[in-house]
Each structure stands twice: as C-alpha cells, then as structure tokens.
Amino acid sequence: MPDRGGGPTGPRIRVGRPSRRVRTLLMTLGVLAVLGMAFTMFAGFWTDWLWYRSVNYSSVFTTTLWTKIGLFFVFGLLMALSVGFNIWLAHRLRPPLSAMSMEQQSLDRYRMGIAPYKKWLLLAITALVGLIAGASASGQWRTWLMWVNGVSFNQKDPQFHLDVSFYAFDLPWYRFLLGFGFAATILSLIAAALTHYLYGGLRITSPGARATSAATGHLSVLLGIFVALKAVAYWLDRYGLAVKSSDFKATDNWTGLRYVDANAYLPAKTILFCIAVICALLFFATLWRRTWQLPVIGFGLMVLSAILIGGLYPAIVQKFQVQPNEQAKEAPYVEKNLKATREAYGIDDAQVTEYSGQSSIDDKTKLRDDVDSTASIRIMDPNVVSPTFQQLQQIRNYYGFPTNLDVDRYSKDGKDQDTVIGLRELNLNGIPKNNWINDHFRYTHGYGAVAAEGTSADSQGRPVFTESDLPSKGDLGKYQQRVYYGEKTTEYSIVGGPQKEIDYSDDTGEKTYSYEGNSGVNLSNPINRAAYAVAFSEPQILYSGAIGEGSRILYNRTPKERVEAVAPWLTIDGDAYPAVVDGKIQWIVDAYTTTNGYPYASRTTLGDTTADSLTATNDSRAVVAQQNQVNYIRNSVKATVDAYSGQVKLYEWDTQDPVLKTWMKAFPNTVEPKSDISESLMAHLRYPQDLFKVQRELLSRYHVDDATTFLSGSEVWQVPDDPTNKAGDAVPPYYLSMKMPDQKEQAFSLTTTFTPNGRDNLSAFMAVDAEAGTGDYGKIRILKLPTNTTVNGPKQVQSQFNSEQDIAETISLLSRGDSNVEYGNLLAVPLDGGLLYVEPVYVRGGGLKYPLLRKVLVTYGGSTAFEDTLDQALNKVFGAEGTTPEPPEGDGDEPTEPTPPPTTENPTVQEALNDAQKAFEDGQQALKDGDWEAYGKAQEDLEEALRRAEDAQSGETGGGGASPSPSPSPDSS
After folding, report:
1. What's the rounded Cα separation, in Å, for the pair 756 and 762?
2. Higher pLDDT residue, 597 or 614?
3. Which of 24, 62, 172, 934 could be disulfide-bonded to 926 (CB atoms 3.0-4.6 Å)?
4. Contact at 8 Å (CB) between 283 and 227?
C-alpha cells in the first residue's frame, strides 16, 4: 500500500512460517485433543455396555443402540440426499448467461468466491442437515419400536371403528414421518431457492422475468410436494380428533370428539384434504404450463378455505347449535368419553354402592366388638416414625433410614399382621471422616431390616419391634442382611478387592467383609479402569493401589434407577419398598406401561395426579415417567431388585396388556412370565400407590355413569387436603388391613376419602383390595354417602379434635417446653353404616429428637375420645370402659395411679405403694414441665414399686391374692 504520510514507516518485518518444532508440537496437541475427545465418547459407551452386561440386560442396550443408529443413518441420509439433490439440481438448472444488471454483477463476486469450494460446501451443508435430522430421528426409537412391534388391542374406537393400536402405535409414527417430510421439503425448498437466486434462476430487481422456466418448474414441484403433505396432514387430522385434547367444562383434559368435532371439524378436514390434493396437482402442472398463476390461486383458495371451513364454520356451529342445547348435543360424545376413560384407566369395574354414613346399631358393645373384626387399625404411621427408628435402631451414625418407611404384611403365629419396615442403609454423611477411600471402599453397605408392629406401641409410645438390633434378629428369620442397593445408596462403591470393607460393629469391635457377589463391573482390566476414571471424572480409579484383582465397581444403586435403566419403556412408581423373601432382601418396584393415544380417554398429568403431602416433602417418591401426559395406564410389570446382588428381575403382571406385549416383542426375553413369581414373593406384592392416586383422581369425576350428571358437574368430588399439615397438599392414600361392608374378612387394602368439590364434608370412601394373589385383587369399592345428610370429612374431623376443650388443653400440655406434637395418619374405616376415624398423636418431648406415641384420637357417630391407647379410646367412644385390657408390660405411656390390693396390712406392701404414689406424682410434675427424661425415670420407678407391691402381696396370700394394676388417672385424659 502507498505511504499515506505520518512519519517513517520503519523496516518491513517479514512473517515467516512456524518452525518445524512448533508445527510438530501443534500437530501433536491437535491429535491428542482428538484422541481425548474420542476416548471420552468411547468411555461413556463402554461403561454403559459393561453395566448392562453386568445386570444381564445387554439385549436392551444393543436393541436400543442399533435402533438409534439405524434411525440416525436412515433419516439423516434421507435428509442429506433430499437437500443435496435439490441444491445440485438447482445448480444444474442455472441459466447459461446471467442478466446484465447490478444485482447479478454483485452476485458474481459470491459465485466466483465459492466456485473453488462448491463440492466441499455442498458436502458440508448436506452433512450438517443430515446430522441434525439423524439426531432428531434417533430420539424416536420408542415410536419406531412400538410401530413395528405393535399388538392389537382388539378394541375399536366408536367414531372410525379402527383398532386402538392404530392410535397408540401407528398414528404417532405416521405423524413423525409427516413432520420429517415437511422438514425435508421446506429445507429443500429454501436451499433450492437460494441456489437459483445465486445463479440467476430467480431475480428480484433484474429486468425481465423473475424466474427462469427451469426454476419455476423445480420450485413448483417442491411446493406441490409441500401441499400434498398438507393434504396428508388434513387426512390424519381426521383421526387425530379421536385423541385430541381440549378444555371442556366437564373436565380440563377432555380427549376425543365432541359435537362440533364430529359435525364441523371432521367434514371440514375432509373438504380441505380434497382442496389440498387439487392444489398440489396444480403445482405439479407447472412442469408443462410454466406459470404459477393457477397454483397461486389454488393455494390462496386453500388458505381461505382453511380459515372459513376449518375455523369460522366450527365456531358458528358451536355458537348457534351446541351452546343453546349443549347437554343434548354433547351427551352421546360424553358417553363415549366416559366408557373409554373408565376402560383406559382400569376403573370400569369400580363398584359404587350407597352408604348411609350413620350407624343404625344401638348396641355399643357390638360396635366395639365389630371394630376388631373390621380393621387392624394401624397406629404406627410410617411417615412419622422414621426418626424413632433412626434413634432407637440406627446403632451407628453411618446408618440411616428413609424419610418414609413402608407398610407390608408378615405372618406371625399363622396370622398376617401389618408391619412397618425399613432398611438400615448406608449414610455417608455419618461416617467419622470423609475421604475417597472411606466413601467408596470402606463404607459400602447398610446392614439389616428393622420392622415393627403397625397396630401397637409399647408403654412408652415406642414401636414394638419385631426385627431389631445389629445384626438384626427377630421374626424375619435368617436372611442376607447386607444392603448394597437401596433408596439412599446414591454413590458408587468399589468392593471385592484388596481393601476390606467395614461390615458392622458390635461389642467386640468392627467386623470387616469383602463383597462376594457377582454384581458390578470388574476393574481388573486396565481399559475398564481408564474408562471409569474418565466417565466418573475420578483419575484415582486408574492408579489407586486400593483397586486390584477382584475389585468391582457398583453404581446405579437405587432400585428405581436400576429398573428404569433395564426397562426404559416403563414408568416407575414413586415408592419402592423392601421385603424379606426366601432369605434375601428384595426391593419391590411397581412399573407401568402407558400411552397417550387411547381414543376418547381423557388425559391426566402423572406428575400432578400423583403428588400429595408426601411427595411435596420427599422428592424421591415422585413417579419416574417416560411421558408425563397419559390417557392409558396399566400396572403391567412387578420388578424386584436384590439388595445384596443388585439383580433385577421383571415379571409380567398384566398378561392382557397390549402395550406390554408390544414391548416384550421389541425386547424379547427381558420380562419373565407371571408364573415365575414365587408364593413367598407374591405374599409381599401389593397394589401400587401411584396407580391408585391416578385412579382416584379420575374417579372423582368418572364415578358417574350417565352423561347428564357428568355434564352438570353436581357429582364432582375432590381428594381432600391432608389435615395433618398446613401445606395444602392432597392426603396420601393409606395401606390398612380392613374389610368393606360386602367383604367377609379383612384384606390388605389401599384407602382414601373424597369430599364434594369445594366443600369439606365426606362424599365417598374408596378402597382397593391390595392383596396380590387373591381373587379380588385390584377390585375398587366406593361407598357413596348421601348428599342430603352431612358426614364429617377429614378436615372437619381434625377441626373437631382441635376445638374440643379437653383435647385442646391436653395438646397444650403436651406441647409445653421444647415438646412438639405431631399428628399421624388420619385413618377412616367404614363401620356398621358409619365412619370410624382414628388418628395417632406423637410427641417429640424435651431432649428427645424422635416422636413417641402419646395419645390416640378416635371419633364415631359424634362421640370423640382422646386417650393413651387405642383400646382405651375405642372403649370410651363405644361406652365400654369396663372392658379396658391391661396395658402391655412396661412403664405406662401416661401417668397411672396405682390401685391398692385388697389387703394392705403388710408393711412391705404399704411401703411399695407409698413409693408408687411418689413416683406417680413425680411423673405428673415432669409431664407438666415437659421433662421427658424425668418422666421416663418416674415411670420406671412406678413400675418397680408396683412390682414390689405385687410380689409382697403374692407372698402374703400364697400367690393367690389380687395384684395391683394400673388404672387410668382421673386427669390423664
């Protein structure tokens, strides 16, 4: 460049090429970077393959992988060829000479600039669109597998009389193909138009024709393909009306045709289909006519028709035909929706019976006797007593229990009893010192199950443990107690190698152990170690001396994670629960098959429907949904995860479910037949909570069987809020052994209540037989209360409890000092025409950090009791005070005043009774002060004094005298 002044320019510096050493270094760094990226991608793939092989579900990995790869290459190649061919064709059809204009002269610079790189540019563009399209298509692997393996439902929709499988399996795939066709056509049209413009086939400002005949024909064909695809879309939209969601005053998630759909939208879609076909033919005709006049007119008419026929006409029909007589017009379609929704959610066999809500039996003694035969009332709330388990059975700080325990059934003396159970899992936050060795090598597993009777508490309000201590012992017998897989086990562990694990501790000190199972992935191979070092971003895995021959890495350790991984087509229930089965701890996981393509069945949002007061405080209880909005659900699979070996087994549960059959075709030999479920495992299977919550939400509207009532909304119910907290979340369902009025004996059940929409009185009680392996399993029974009388609902019962003066005073007394009162589950039990409500009341007292059962609230027929034990409360409500059984052995959970024996001349007896009286008074004072430690000491002194009095009296009378027994204090209630 010429010198523009401004002083001397100085010497010219010549910039040379980098030296060979620098070039070599840069090339080496580049190669290393590429290799690093490649190995990172390989590590993710390789570790996934190793994990699936370790759980014996490698077929799931390979089927999913090859399906994704196939879809990626097929649709990526189709998109690349489509766009690339149209770019090549547009370039081939370019005019031989460019018009002499400023527009074309400025485009010449771009044409000359890209001329040397045309092939590479074409390859780059086609590769880019191919990669994007392939990646998008690979995400449709579920849609492809369901389409290619689809099984018939053997049910036809009421409008088009097509099998439900068309909507569930075929229509989603056709819609994907249609969407892909639109994308390919639009991208090809844009690419072709740009190429024609660049090479002069299209002109904007140049004089003369705006397009060459070749460009006109090419673009017209592409536009014709687009309009033809639109015609196909109109045709598919006709069937889509059967699974279309819309807001309807009867329900927010209405699905299926309504009057306006069947009589306006359906014929409109057919007319628009015909117009679009004609319009597409006009575009194709430009290959001969070389003019866009007729196609443009046709396209304009199609757009106008879409507005008038597809938009305005249905609005007129809705306004002037439907609204003036909505119930009569909509009734036939509502009946179809009622029938389809009840079938799709498995509630079509729900038995609704009238229930008075008031007992007609005057004999209170009989009512009291009927309570014991009607229900085994659970006063141990599994959602409250976890801290009690933690405090009494944690044993070591590095163990922990889940926030919410589980309810199961275990047999004792030949009789099933409701049991609250939890596993003593590993809690890394409680280990003495956190470091890599401790966190991943030494502290690797929990130890043992802890179980307690659900229907009783000891004299201090603590659970009556049937399995306890470390190692655990009790009614569960001998079993493998080590818990390597659990709900709280979220970190990886490396076991089985030279580094010993801490097993458990007892009076003799720590016991060590080395894992003997076949679970996990072997790390003896250096390639495996390198892959996991990269995958887990933990370089020590590669070189640590703690890893050696026999070392295995365990990860994906929560039951829900494992089941979701081996069956990615299932929706996982939020509550996995443990059971001791055949000498092993097995996690039982309920899993569902779902679809949102069941015609006429209203949709529900799983995340919202399954939310309640428990999921609000515990995220781990949330359902793991493959698709959140569904309108068909079945509990088709029962899965187990071994707490020691991590082995996952899937069992076919619903043998008639076509969705499960479809997935079993796609993934053969992954689901075992129902007949393989052992009797011992069957005894612990139960009806799942999340399915029950979905069904109860639907039954709040779909319990009616006629369209008029459904449309009026007069019978809409709602799930009440949990009265035991102030968060405003729905009350959770409760497991309870009970019998409904038409049952002859108790059955393990899942229960809930309903209230009228916007009101708090009770409208219905619902229970499902949750005992697997029985003939009535899954049978839903609903007791519908009359609308002309008022029966208190849960919120009203809780309010009644809190407003009674005696109860309020006692609650205030229990809440003194540092004590906190916690309400347990408010259980409702149908009893001889009325409703019995029972609620345990717990107290975290003084220095104690865990809740103890202190009182039981009971109400029935307007009578309320607030007593120390369930029996006492029931006796008071039913006027059976004289039948109060003696409390269990121990130091009573509330103050009791000693009843003197008939003979008191013996000075030893008198002295013991004086001590008992003093202990009683000390306990009263401690209770008022909220000093639970002193209170417990006083109760122990009271028990000891009464025992001495009894021994002295027995010695005096030769063993035949009356023994002193505690009786309720006048002010203890």
Report:
1. 7
2. 597
3. 934
4. yes
